[in-house]
Amino acid sequence: xDVKLPQLAEGVESGTAVAILVAExxxxxxxxxxMELETQKAVGSIPAxxxxxxxxxxxxxxxEISVGQLxxxxxxxxxxxxxxxxxxxxxxxxxxxxxxxxxRQPESREAPTLSHHYQSSSGAPPPAAPxxxxxxxxxDIDLTRVKGSEAGGRIVLEDLRAYxxxxxxxxxxxxxxxxxxASSAAPRRxxxxxxxxxxxxxxxxxxxxxTVSRRMVESWTTIPKINxxxxxxxxxxxxxxxxHAPAYQKKGAHLTLTSFLLITxxxxxxxxxxxxxSVDEGAGEIVFKDYRHxxxxxxxxxxxxxxxxxxxxxxxxxxxxxxxxxxxxKTRQRKISLEELQGGTFAISNQGSIGGxxxxxIIYSPQVAILGVGQGSPKPVVVxxxxxxxxxxxxxxxxxxxxxxxxxxxxxLREIIAGLKSFAEDDVIIN
Amino acid sequence: MxxxxxxxxxxxxxxxxxxxxxxxADRGKKVILxxxxxxxGGVCLNAGCIPSxxxxxxxxxLREAKDSAARGIEFGAPKIDLDKLxxxxxxxxDKLGQGIKGLAQKRGVQLVHGRGHFEDSQTLRVETxxxxxFIAYDTxxxxxxxxxxxxSAFDLGNKRIMTSTEALEIQDVPGDLLxxxxxxxxxxxxxxxxxxxxxxxxxxxxxxxLTGIDPDLVRPVSRFAQKAFKxxxxxxxxxxxATAGKRIKVTIQLAGEQRxxxxxxVLVSVGRMPNISNxxxxxxxxxxxxxxxxxxxxxxxxxxxxxxxxxxxxxxxLLAHRASKQARITVEAILGEPSVFENIVIPAVxxxxxxxxxxxxxxxxxxxxxxxxxxxxxLWGASGRALTLDRPDGLTKLIVEPETERILGVGIVGSGAGxxxxxxxxxxxxxxxxxDIADSVHxxxxxxxxxxxxxxxxxxxxxxxxxxPQA
Lengths: 431, 471
Hints:
A: alpha+beta; CATH 2.40.50.100; Dihydrolipoamide Transferase; Chloramphenicol Acetyltransferase; seven-stranded mixed β-sheet; four-stranded antiparallel β-sheet; 28% helix; 23% strand; B: alpha/beta; FAD/NAD(P)-binding domain; five-stranded parallel β-sheet; 32% helix
């Protein structure tokens, strides 16, 4: 069967193959990742739609691949090679007549893909006439960011114009112009020769590392943020966890502090919708979302990945615990799909299992707030005029001041703290 | 003495230096051009490109006349008047040298003749015929070029042991000429002397002549040289040279065995070194790279912020047109423009029989760097024009990026390859695809058609051949 690149997510038409994980002649299982793809949104793996033997690989690492493009051919166990619908996706919507792409054509020049990044197998710079290259140099435009429309991807004046027009549209919209400048247009710092001071080792930044780095710079340079510190008393909550963990375990779920955090935060988000919002500066609007999809930062061998749990406020603690376990495992094995990394409205970064106190997490733009959680530890606390030992959980809410004011943020954080402190046992019991 | 002041001083008036001086003047800068040789033009004009090509052209007739017999036109034995040949050659150099001088004067570039020596980062002392002159400048461009290397073991002070500079003077036609080094200089001058009647032996320490060039481009040249020269010995080393009366006794090592041979003259062409040992660089912040050339960045700037270096002095591939391009980039850099010497296609031409020319990525380089390419080759045996010229010993090839069909490099061997390569340069610089060349009509019957045919070979649809591209 021919495996084609499935529809990845809304608005994602293509990506760069950063790693091919199978070889020709290799036997593969259904859902085994066949390649890793970097899109402007994230890095994710493409699962095999069926088991069989890879007879041909049609793409190469570093190649830009569009939805529907042929990736590999598999000889299915017991079956002959035959064309099939794209991997892991529903069959093509409908086989429509030649006017197939009326939507995409005007787009290509009017609104250029600003996330374009030219890479060629030979390592050659993007194809463009010397006159165009000179113009780009004079304007300090990195041509690898400009999508060429001519044969072989050659960049012509019109492409450069379209790119600049796109940049201006963004600037007009007041969106992420700053971050664009920071990540692409600004001249790169000249590489320092560290070997002058001693032995060094160089390692290529993985696609994931680059994505993380780009997103963090974007967040850091565009969001006016405030960090709000506080502690939550989780003494009672820990007791509840200890008491009910075995029951969860029996049913195949792991009752973790993160599960409690997820449900508590989701409920607080219902009451404090601004913390669940996004800014649309172009439209001059704040977008309130009627769903609470929470991202959980997962520390994988390859680096930070943030899978998203859907509709957390509508789930009970058991479902959350089970889903969290499953998605974390999937993430660690790099089997998480692009879809599962998208659509988050808020994020939690819990470093507690490793240790550490208060820290200031970076907001996962376009979200407007993130909760950074340290390790809970016993502390002397004044309770009813007496010193008592309570387990305090260090919390830090980092938030976007464009949307949330100090009062909003503190009220939201206090809501979470109160929720954690007096977590109802009824909500823990599996029904 | 009060130093004269200028914005830019250019040291050396070769194809790098005078190009820099002229362009800077054209862009409104006050420029002084310093040159020690009375004739401007540098190595290229005085002891390189120009005289060698004059001699190659003049002597090529001898070979053509001989070959002509097979085509039914015979000539008598040629008479060679070396003095007249030399005078004709020198007249070209004078004409070009005068031309450069005139162009300098019309642009208001001030010429100072004499040896330049840096006193500090912003002062140049020039020893002229009228005594020392000091020039205070904002920016200096070093364009002092290179000279033929003469290993001390061979440097006996014997005039019969020559570098290319002396060989171009053609003092006589030696009966037996040994060429040490099978690089392009040795092969070009070997061709001149062989045509004049010398028995030429080429010694090369490496396993191939013209090392670094794609082997399929070298092959026709090897075949020609094997006929025209007495011998080409590869993997061979010269151990010693000694004066033996009017001849040179050369001790060579070939396959573990030592041998002594006598030659009338020896041409040593084993590489070139920069002319920077005596120009006072120690009084500036300029540093050298590990090969002894001036270290500079992509904007041709040295480690001294007031000093730039271009051409052979800065190392890399030693080519006149590369120096001229660097000259323009340097001037633009000085003017504050963002120009850099990066991703610039520098074609190379070897004026052997037949000529070899290439640009952009070569097949060998692709292999070495693990870049996957497709190579489309067109053999000149199928070119009507090549046959009418009686030169079917040619090959045109395109080095192509497979998925985009973009032309990354072009290689040509054959008569007039040097004139053909510029289309390849334009193609690579423009990011042209194979289809672009295939669809551009080339006039018939010309050798330029071989580029179009090679492009068609890529698609397996070439009119005059049945070959397919190689992965």
